[in-house]
Amino acid sequence: MQDWLTMTAADLGRGIEAGEIGPVALSRCYLEAIEAHPLKDRIYTQVTHDRAIAEAEASQKRADLGLRRSLLDGVPVSWKDLFDSAGTATESGSDLLKGRVPDQDAAVLRNATLMGTVCLGKTHMSELAFSGLGFNPVKQTPPCVNDQAAAPGGSSSGAAASVAFGLAAAGIGSDTGGSVRIPSAWNDLVGLKTTSGRITLEGVVPLCLKFDTIGPLARSVEDAGLLLGVLEGTAGPDLRHPASLKGRRFADLQNIVHDDLDPKIAAAYRETLEKLKEAGAQIVPLEVPELEEAMGLSPILYTTEAYGLWKDVIEVSPQLMYPEILERFRTGAQFSGPDYVAAWAKLERCRMAWDQAVAGFDAVLSPVSPNLPPNLERLQSDHDYYVQSNLLALRNTRVGNLMGVCALSLPTGTPSCGLQVLGQPDCEEALLRTGSAIEAALA
Asked: Is pTM, for the whole model, over 0.90?
């Protein structure tokens, strides 16, 4: 049973299908592992024990009758603390929302429940999802699996930790500027950022609605595809047989994403590209000059919307917030309505240039993050280090959000050094198939 805590969600589902794993025993295995773990309170905000057992019992009955609803029927999953869950506090990592208890599940949680997944509970996150570090002194800071003295990546920090530490078969998070991909990279997981608008945000505590997306953090690309399916109430793509990389053409993005790159990450990225070439892929250097302008628009686009959504709540009790997050929100007050509208018009032009530049490639590649997980103690005491670490962590992933595409984070085999694979808008299935082929080449 201990093996269950490290198996992929897909393999657990196949074990249930074959009658080798019982959903109730599986859920109890995970619940007992959570209860026994010394860091559980830094990972889970709440463990929904009764719900998990009830859902697992229903899954067992379906399995006995041959009526399983998906391959992941009976598989235990964690949920970031910004997804509404009926009768369970959903506080988005902030004391501003302390005691907030929704009366119904978020739409994606309803979908996943209908497809048979088991809800283990809610995981910690960056405050109101507005940080790529996962450092949250207001609530809890989850551990990084590779260095417990370092930040785990955020904002889906607990989601990543729950999977990396064997306390969930998969985690569901959100990604506004990199919040699925950064913690996935720093904890050696697969993370999928979906295209903005593809998955409903109903019942999800917002940060920036124009950039907010939902995605899984998992142990394999196959898992990510299956989880995409259950979030939408579908089967998801069949990724059991990875395609070859022969003849695939990838762009190696040059501008911006290699600046200030940690030497360990740079080396891991070079080794990864060599493995892809050995597997038959063609790697072509690519510069997209318009990215410079798009990056410069980020402060206007993100902080204006975030502060616009949260100003009335924040300014009633600003003392409840971590000062670094409060300051970042308040930056949005500096920009006018015309500034914001003009910035979006410029971004749309940049997106058109990007679409033209990458049209001939199967995907665009870059390191997920230019920096390794920063030290928690220094983040607490050094303002400049916090700001620089946060902005750097989010820089490369933000390319995907600004350009409006879907994206994957894949482990490279070097701890905390992820590969980012950028696809086309609304082409998650193609991206996942490409990611599966890359995963096989790197194995």
From this structure: yes
Q: Which helix (H) or strand (E) holds 214?
A: strand 213-218
Indicate if 179 belongs to the active site.
yes
Q: What is the CA radius of gyration of the chain?
A: 20
Beta bridge partners of 147: 144
> Of the listed 70, 78, 94, 155, which one is catalytic?
155
- The enclosing H or E element of 226 equals helix 221-232
Q: What is the DSSP secondary structure assignment for residue 326, as one 8-state letter?
A: H
Q: What's at 338, amino acid-wise?
A: P
Active-site hit among 70, 85, 179, 369: 179
Task: Check 59, 70, 78, 80 and give the catalytic one.
Answer: 80
DSSP-derived letter for residue 28 is H
CA distance 371 to 424: 26
- Whether 78 is catalytic is no
Q: Produce one character per residue of 105-133: b if its CB has 16 or more CB atoms within 10 Å, e if not.
A: bbbbbbbbbebbbbbbbbbbbbbbbbbbb
Nearest partner of 52 among 23, 72, 80, judged by Cα: 23
Question: Does the structure show a pLDDT above 80 at 2?
Answer: no
The residue-averaged pLDDT of 190-210 equals 98
Give tens-digit pLDDT for 353-392: 999 999 999 999 999 999 999 999 999 999 999 999 999 9
